[in-house]
Structure prediction request, 405 residues.
Amino acid sequence: MNIRHHVSDTLLAAYATGDLAEGWSLAVATHLSLCPECRKRLAKFEAVAADMMEALPAEADVSGSWDAMKARLAGSDAGVALPPEKTVSKPVASPVLPEPLRSYVGGDAKALKWKPLGRGAYQVQIPTRDEETTVRLLRIPAGRPVPEHSHGGRELTLVLAGSFSDEQGRFARGDLEEADEDLQHQPVAGSEEDCICLAVTDAPLRFSSRFLRIVQPILGI
Amino acid sequence: MSENPEDLARLMESVALRRDVAAFEVLFRHFGPKVKTYMLRQTRNPQLAEELMQETMMAVWNKASLFDAGRGNPSAWIFTIARNLFISAYRKQNRPEFDPNDPAFVPETIEPAEVVLQGLQEAESLRAALNELPDEQRELVSRSFFADVPHSALAAEYGLPLGTVKSRIRMALAKLRKSMEGGR
Prediction:
């Protein structure tokens, strides 16, 4: 796979330090499952974060802590050798949706209940436990435009099937686009197949067309 | 206590293979205070910080066999456990992570041993680069990502415009990034 659009340093560092809300993290983690290069960068950010933790001044009092810990260990398997871990491989063959996304939506792309958005586009909303983001899978018909829109905040789009192109370039499987309020873009799905992408936003999208602005709350986009 | 990374890795191995309580005590006394300080910074609640530290170290004990001693210093591994516990227990959110056993997972193409070695060298040069940053930049990066301080609060505290804080953090990350690329 040839991924050309990667996670930015800012996002990846925030993911590494645990500073990123669940919705954004889902897009980053799913990109990571497809991108060995970014996984290497992640390991480095985690090493740096661990160094920062090591460098914190030891202001915490842990004088009584070891006794409490020791008492807990006594009830565990102290002194008993562990059996080696087993890994279980899953039966699904080359799914469109990689983990952790597939478990979040409860199945691969074909098994989902897609809700029509109009103009041949479909979506599946994905619940998370953060209150900051809206997460959904979008399916845009091959060769068709996603309605032109700008953003009230940040938007992350991760392509999982097909492709789309906009002012920032062409995005195919594994590519991640980061957009903010300054970007007014008109993505068009590639003609090869329907484009399936994961879209995470932190504010409702603002459509340029008045009609779409009116129906937006009704469609729930 | 100041154990070097190789000693700490060896202690981890001893915990994993022999369930060695004495080895674990050394790890606990080394990492416990750091993890607790980290939790204290995040939660500002001493009792909760103590509980989360205990849970972290209990997980280190229980999952010791998952630590890969070839990766060197266990601090990064322990940090990720602490971070994930903080997210799930305190922020009540899930932590989405990639799954290397997933059939859709795209593996690394280079020989693993080579990658690990290269990764260690790059992490070293990244650490060096972090230490070479001007104090203010290092502090901004560290506090922005580590103490959950929003950019706007940092701007107010340092008396800097928000845009300047953002661009300094970006600049610091760009320098760190350059050091990773230069390390190859």
